[in-house]
Structure formats: C-alpha cells, structure tokens
Amino acid sequence: MRIDLHTHSRVSDGTQTPTELVHAAVAAGLDVLAITDHDTAQSWPEAARAAGEVGLTLVRGMEITTLHDGYAVHLLAYLPDPTYPPLRAMLERILEGRSARVPAMIAKLRALGIDIDVADVQRVSPATTATGRPHVADALVDLGAVGDRTQAFRRYLNAGRPAHVERYAAPLTEALRVVGGAGGVSVVAHPWGRHGHDRPDAETISALVDLGLAGIEVDHQDHDDVARTRLRGIATDLGLVVTGSSDHHGTGKIDHELGCQTTAPEQLERLVALASAAAARSGRDAPGVLDA
Ligand code: AMP
Ligand code: FE
Ligand code: FE
Ligand code: ZN
Prior knowledge:
- There is one protein chain.
- This protein has about 290 residues and is α/β, with parallel strands linked by helices.
- About 45% of the residues lie in helices and about 15% in strands.
- It contains 10 helices and 8 strands.
- Strands 1, 2, 3, 4, 5, 6, 7 and 8 form an 8-stranded mixed β-sheet that branches.
- The protein is globular.
- The relative contact order is 0.18.
- It binds adenosine monophosphate, fe (iii) ion (2 copies) and zinc ion.
- The site of one fe (iii) ion (FE) has 4 residues, from loops.
C-alpha cells in the first residue's frame, strides 16, 4: 500500500490539473493520494471525479499558510468541511493577501528593469486560485528573465531578495482551531525544512498539540536524517501521527516526485479515525476518504 499525503495541482502552484495529478499518481504506483493545494479546496471536485474513475483512494486536504511567533508554518488540514464559515473566511483572507501581493511584486521587478506585467503572471497561471511566487517565477521564465523557478526564487523572490513581498498568513493557533471546528485533522508540514531545527522546537510542538495538532510530516525531502530522527522521537513522545509525503508540484519543484516519500497505512488509519472523531464532535458534514 503506497500512500502520498501532500501534493499540489495547478489550482495552487503545481503544474498538473487535478485529473492529471490523479492519473500520475496511479502511474507512480500509488494507492492513496491526498491533494493538498495551498489555501483552497477548489481542486477537490475534479480530483474526486478523476479518482473515482480510476479507482484511486483520495484524501481531500489543503495546505494552509500560517504564521507562529513571526515565522511561517505550513499546516496540512485533512478532511475538513470546506463550507464551514470560519474556514471559508480564513482561506478567503489568505487568498486575498496572495492576490494583493502580485502587483506589489511586479512593481518591484519593474523597478529592477524587468518588463513584466500582472497579465504575464495571469497568462502562465490561468487555472490558479492561490496565486503565489511560483507563478511570478513562471512568468519570469516565460519572459526569458531567468532559466527556471529556482533561479527566480534565488535572484528575486526569496525573503531578502529584491522582489520579495510579505503577505497575510493566518495565526497558526487560529488555523488549528478552525480546522478542528471544520471536522478536519491537522498535521504540520515539513516543520524543519526551512528554519533549522528549533522553529518550532519540541516544546512548541507540544503546546500546539494542546491546541489540536495531530501529526508531524516527518519524511519530507527537505528534512535530513538528523531532523527525521529527532522529529520521529518527538512524535513518539507526544503520541502524534507520523506522515511522509512527496510535496509534489508537477515539474514546478525538482526532486519531489510522487511517492518519493510515503506514509505507513496504520498512520493513515489513525489520521482518518481522528478526522471522523473531529467531524462527530463538531457536527460538521466533513468529507470522508474517497475509497477506491
Ligand atoms: P508563496 O506561497 O507564494 O509564498 O510561495 C511559496 C511556494 O513557493 C512554496 O509553497 C513552494 O511550493 C514554492 N517554492 C519555494 N521555493 C521554491 C523554489 N526554489 N523552486 C520552486 N518552488 C519554490
Ligand atoms: Fe507550493
Ligand atoms: Fe509547504
Ligand atoms: Zn506543499
């Protein structure tokens, strides 16, 4: 049983349609796929249709952009009711922040002498609900200003680079509460992928568990062996679910092929049971796993 619980389609910053992503998952030998676009559930209906047709088990999820103590934390939310008003409002606000940032980044790039417009970004990302830096990067590639997304981030878009613009992120504590209220279950994505091994540290993760955090994405390409060993230890100490996933973005991110990291079946079972319990508690009509 091969299970990949973190992937992106063109609805956010992946390069495949939800249908193409589902078909690619089957081709990669996966039995279970979670689609987790940034800050939106827009990909779910198409992904569910495609998964039903090919007999792939689908876990509907999203990756929510949050902030905690001044640093970015990506929160994977599985099986929340997307119609829960506080969740809708939270995502709406994040998506507005994403949209507002695009013209600001374009203005900075233009000030650097690059002839780029908002229309160039729209042209390369017609299917996107959650516009982000990767789409600005794609426009830069399209215009011949850089060779690929990575170069665009390194030269212009990463924090500290000249076209970087901050945007709104939901407080992590609020996101945990809202996901639980929506009958979903929360897993912190690649916690030690970018900021070293102490943001969040073990103590912080423990405090987040009290607020509803259920799991840690331990096996991720951005985690080295030391990070994985320590995170697995923290998960064991706190009784948390351990996941592993590709964070696939189609051709948008190298070295994140579907199924390159996977989740153990018993860990998925725990997640699904926790989501069912959350849905029962909240009384929300949360989606179950779409079985093959
Ligand atoms: P944003 O959500 O607009 O702030 O952009 C962050 C997203 O950009 C992340 O979710 C990654 O998927 C993507 N990203 C970050 N760095 C790179 C990179 N070097 N190459 C490609 N994609 C990247
Ligand atoms: Fe992404
Ligand atoms: Fe992420
Ligand atoms: Zn991701």
